Records
---
Amino acid sequence: WQQHEGLRRVKRAWVIPPISVSENHKRIPHLLVQIKSDKQQPGGVIYSIKGPGVDEEPLGIFSIDKFSGKVFLNAMLDREENDRFRLKAFALDLGGTTLEDPTDLEIIVVDQNDNRPLFRHDIFTGHVLEGAEPGTCVLTVDATDADDPDTDNAALRYSILEQGSAAMFSINSTTGEICTARPGLDRETVGVYNLTVQAADMSGDGLTTTATAVIYLEDINDNPPEFTKEEFSMEVEEQAVGVDVGKVLVHDKDLAGSSNWLAKFTILEGDPEGAFAIRTDPYTNDGVLSVAKPLDHEVRDRFELTVSVRNEEPLEPLAPASPQALATVRVRVQDVNEAPVFRENPRRVSVLEGAPPGTSITTFTASDPDTHQLQSLTYALLYDPADWLQLEPHSGTIRTKRELLHPSAFLQGGWYIALVLARDDAEPPLSATGTLSIEILEVNDHAPVLQPTAGVVCGRPGRGGNMLLGATDDDRPPHGAPFHFQLSPQHPQLTRNWSITRYNVTHAVLAVLGELPQGPYSLPLLLRDSGSPPQEQQQLLNISVCHCGRDGTCEDGVLAAATAGAGITLGALMIILGSTILLLVLVGLGAARARGRRRALRKELLLQRSGDDMRDNILNYDEQGGGEEDQDAYDMNQLRQPELLARRSKAPVRRDTPLSSATSLSPRKLPSSPSDIEDFINEGLEVADGDPSVPPYDTALIYDYEGSGSVGSPLSSIVSSLTDEDQDYDYLSEWGPRFRRLADLYGH
């Protein structure tokens, strides 16, 4: 290197031009170049190189002889990996001092045709309508080459190696675009084309590769549907609705499932009533014939239909002309057993209220549609809630079983609903239900009834001398109101003191015409309804005329309350309620006093019975007389000490009987054994029956204390589970004269 005026100039010997070497060079090591510095020192020059392929990746491709400066290639090169290497060359003396500035060493890898073309896809796909014109481009295939694009090694050319005998497609050798080559593409003939395409480098003369191009023909509606045969036969049962009768089969060459393939059917002739319908099966494209309206074998037993078919989409103009597809469908209607039919359903009839049993109401019959079959119908009542009707099973005549009453819980707005069942005798039998609606016509069989039947008015005209009268009628309109009120025509004298004027359709006003004395009055009134014919009856109205106060009201409220009935005033009503409450209080006090008296008597009896008596208990209760509480009318000691009867000059008598002469009685001998008790009792009975001075017959058999633990209970033990307050002794008055005393003591 020489340096002059600050500028540096590299000597020509140290500048190394680019070195070219072919890729895939097989002679290794291969001398590429020798570099040399003209500043050689006495001791010599040391050369070195650095850069990719030396001390950088990829390592070891290049090397240099440090003394001679020869650069060698130590490995095969691949241009597709590295198309050039840029190295730095250095020159040093033996001491390591730089003799020259580093210089560039560029090694260019020369390309060889060592890479085949590659298609971007193994399979290319395209679509084109059938019948497409020539020159219609479908798809483009393309390939790449890893070789140097600036050389023929990457110059590609395309071609079709195989597509079938028709050669329907062509390819642009430079661009790889595939287009139709001729007319006549028919999807129904060939639906898919498989083309084998090739790409070659070296402008078609070098390395090659292949791929597949698949071209699908898209369907157009160029084929109309056609019936598979001209006639179809089917059968269907009568009265069947909505059922499928059968199918008419068609064939269409167009793509199955597409709108070009889908068929549409029409019934052209043979079904003026619209009894049939036809639809398309979306899966098979066949026509499905079904029943749209009930068929009747007795009316028409066969049909001959003309059916046409076409596509949902119109045919393409390029499609060949063809006649309309037609087919004949014959349908035979099969006869089956049909249920009876009530032509009039519901049947509405009318019958008069109170019609006697056996009255004919109507003949409710059905008809059997099976006129070609010999069948008979029978009838029965299916629903007759009030059991009012009877039905003749063969004729269908309906009569009343009992009188039809009104009102009734079984009537709905005056109508009685029953159901009639008609059944044929086929196997199996069929039945029908008819509704019978019977209107119970109202009959004017009730006269109006006066309400109220009593009242109070003041005895002078004007205020207080009026009373509002009303009436009710059990009949329904129009046999009820308006009502007509009038004084009985049989008593014309009533019109001098009384008048009746209409108030509304159900009420009238009774008015006093002159001064009337106080007291009760009975006015015969004639009430008439508006029925046809009208019903009328004469009824008594009890009127109490009272003394009128200044304000026109009755002053004597008690009289009004006693005689007015439904027409009493508020004051009279309060007096009646007060009197009733007072009466109830008095009755309650009397009942409480009677109960207290019974308790006192019972305590006295228990005190008398408290002493032990060792005599045998008397268990024979034939007739007990007045009961154990009837002790205040005689002395019990007469039975305890019968010897006193002989000592007394006059026997005690009942205080409630008239005095009579008493007969002396001999002392009675007590029984010595239990077997003598019967004789002792009988003797006592005879003495008591024959002596008028002893208590009367109904009390003669009241006996002494019976001892403890007697199996017989005293009379007070009746209904012993209840207290005295809970017992009702009124029934004693119904037991006859012997229990009259008990009834007086215990009754309320």
---
Amino acid sequence: WHQHEGPRRVKRAWVIPPISVSENHKRIPHLLVQIKSDKQQPGGVIYSIKGPGVDEEPLGIFSIDKFSGKLKAFALDLGGVTLEDPTDLEIIVVDQNDNRPLFRQDVFTGRVVEGAEPGTCVMTADATDADDPDTDNAVLRYSILEQGAAAMFSINATTGEICTARPGLDRETVGVYNLTVQAADMSGDGLTTTATAIIYLEDINDNPPEFTKEEFSMEVEEQAVGVDVGKVFVHDKDLAGSPNWLAKFTILEGDPEGAFAIRTDPHTNDGVLSVAKPLDHEVRDRFELTVSVQNELPLEPAAPASPWALATVRVGVRDVNEAPVFRENPRRVSVLEGAPPGTSVTTFTASDPDTRQLQTLTYALLYDPADWLQLDPHSGTVRTKRELLHPSAFLQGGWYIALLLARDDAEPPLSATGTLSIEILEVNDHAPALQPTAGVVCGRPGRGGNLLLGATDDDRPPHGAPFHFQLSPQHPQLARNWSITRFNVTHAVLGVLVELPEGPYSLPLLLRDSGTPPQERQQLLNFSVCHCGRDGTCEDGVLAAATAGAGVTLEALMIILGSTILLLALAGLGAARARGRRRALRKGLLQRSGDDVRDNILNYDEQGGGEEDQDAYDINQLRHPELFSPRAKPPMRRDAPLSSATPPAPRKLPSSPSDIEDFINEGLEVADSDPSVPPYDTALIYDYEGSGSVASPLSSIVSSLTDEDQDYDYLSEWGPRFRRLADLYG
């Protein structure tokens, strides 16, 4: 009441007593509270509510009697006019312990190394509770219901963390622990639930490997290499396949030569013994090895110390048949060339390694390409079957190679091959031979009066060059007209000391090699003394110089080389024509055929008239042109060294192609019946090539320049084809 205004009525609010209700109430509907508006109207008041639990989710939880009132109520008169302002009603739901704890997973897994110290935490097994966390309904406590005989683990009652409780965790004893864990609400006095905790112990290297027994026995064949003999078995308590389990083996004693090796089988961890070097039963038939084993990784410091495990391995070497052996292979021997048949070469035998078995060896020739040897099958003695000749296509650098086979009589038999290398020693059994045996020389002292002589020898060094040339000691008078000076190790120069008449000559020479003992030979040098020109060279044509055997001047060498190349080219072109005319030649001169004799002669290497036209070839070109001149002299013959005998009457020359055969046969008969002169002396008359060549004459083998004026050093720069010339003149 206010003093000045007088008494007035104060507005009153809703009458709403406190409201609370327990969850999970079983009697529905349950009267919570009654609300009442003080603005009572005639005819009554209608009440209504709205909000969560009424017309909002969750729907249908609360209701109100429209005449009595409940929750958020509205007071209206019967006409629908609001009598009171709406107000909020708070209903408190009282929590009950109606939810069990729930573990986050049914099975918890953890790992811890064996031997871990107490207090080592492994994992946390935690749970949740759906009740009001502000009440004891959600306060949880943890415990271990079951873990085996020894309580090795403990759990934190508040957090659920599981840790080791005592020492002595050994994976080799118990590798896995299964724990039953409980969670209870109401601080351990309410509802409960359980879960499983599995704890695995991780391995450490705390156990060394051990042999399954102290002695092992095995056997292996001799001569076997790289084969496995057997296994030694071990056991390791640590986790199989882990690095802590792997073993390594060592041969400590009994194998000083390293004949055996031992390795680890990665699947079984056992030791595998194998043969590293060939074993010989006859040398040693039994081995006794001391083998040790240990882990590849060192033991943990906490593991008890223990010595290496040792075992004795006895290996027997089994005897088998072995092939014969040639101790000296290849066998090298020497035999003089020309050794007579039956000459002993060597005794080449093998030995049988099987000394404890009675076996007999036999021998056979496996390879004897020249069929030079014979072999005793029982003693292995090799002898010559025929003369060993040198040179031979079966020799390689002077060595003859043969193969021998040695075979035992075991079952099955075994064999071995031996190589016999025979050196054919050179014997000085050949005298040097003059090469060439003919030539042409100018009959005037000087450069043109020199002839280069050469020699060859079938013997190999040192029984060949240097060669010694000299005039025959049986004819001392030769030294008045001739001289021989050494040119190099294989050549000498024959020089003219006095002016000599033209014609053929035969000069006896003595040739000797440098072998031991030296071999010598007397041989005739058949040559012609030509007509000398003013420059000291022959003027009788090209062929005379060619028969000298070698050109000592650069000009002669170049002409000879060019002629050779030209002849080779012409020979290829003429080969086809030669085949077609072979039949005509067979019916040629000697059968007096009716064919054109000139044509046959032209196409079968007849030099003819030099460079004159072959189409106009005349058979008279075969005759020396000087025979037809009024001043010509009959041909002279030199039948003895340095003699100028009276020439015989000239033979009748053929006047037509039909009597050429008689002319040739007559010349051959004269040459064959002459005991003092070789047939070449008579055949010289047919070597004339004509006088029509435009080329420079080669009748002299000596250059117009002296050797002192001519520089031959450039020959060494012309390549390998001129190497011989460079050696002669450089």
